[in-house]
Amino acid sequence: MKKFSFRLQAVLDVRQKELEQKQQEMASIVKRLNEQIEELEQIYLQESQTLASLEDICSSPMLDVATISSSNGYLLKLSQDAKKQLRVIENTKLILKAKQQEISEIYKKVKVLEKLKEKQEEEYYKNIETKLAKEIDDMVTTRYKVS
User: Fold this and answer.
1) Residues in CB range of 94: below 8 A, 6 or more apart
2) Where exactly are the structural domains of the chain?
3) What percent of the chain has pLDDT over 70?
4) What angle is formed at CA 41 by the lines to CA 35 and CA 46, rounded to 5 degrees?
5) Which of 138, 120, 131 is nearest to 5 (CA)?
6) What's this model's pTM, rounded to 2 decimal places?
7) 2-146: what CATH class?
8) What is the DSSP secondary structure assignment for residue 1, as one 8-state letter?
């Protein structure tokens, strides 16, 4: 019984370490996702700043066609960068979802092992109580026979 308990504890320890490792991996994915979202926000900020400066240029009395053309090209590049970044974010979200699923499965296994260990401990203590009760019965029976 005790050997099985030690094996069960070893398996439980391995599963808990695996769970911790997967949680750390998920944390790094979440950190990466947050960085990617910040990068997208930076792209949007640059886009709005470029649009504001382009409006200023267009409202000035002297139109600079070269600056307008280069600003327009830069806006197109920012738009493409934003689309690319959105795809990267979506891919990272898919990876995060898969990692969450892995963690969920491992968590379930850990909980099952913990429940099994609890039941095993309860059974162990019940066996001890049963043995103690038998010993007390034997002592009482022996005293009764002697008297």
Assistant:
1) none
2) 2-146
3) 94
4) 125
5) 120
6) 0.72
7) mainly alpha
8) -
Token pair 């010993």 in the structure block, residue: 135
What pLDDT score was predicted for residue 56?
A: 82
Q: Distance between CA atoms of 134 and 147, rounded to whole angstroms? A: 20
Q: Which of 20-24, 49-53, 75-79, 140-144 has the lowest average pLDDT?
A: 140-144
Type of residue at 100: Q
Q: Is 143 exposed, middle or buried (0-12, 13-18, 19+ CB in 10 A)?
A: exposed
Q: Report d(CA 43, CA 40) in Å as an integer.
A: 5
Alpha-carbon gap, residue 147 to 141, rounded angstroms: 10
Rounded mean pLDDT of 72-77?
92
Tokens of 3: 């050997």
pLDDT at 2: 55
CB-count burial class (<10 Å; 0-12, 13-18, 19+) for 102? middle
Instruction: Kindly provide the b/e burial profile for residues 49-83, where b requires at least 16 CB atoms within 10 angstroms of the residue's own CB.
Output: ebeeebeeeeeeeeeeeeeeeebeeeeeebeebbe
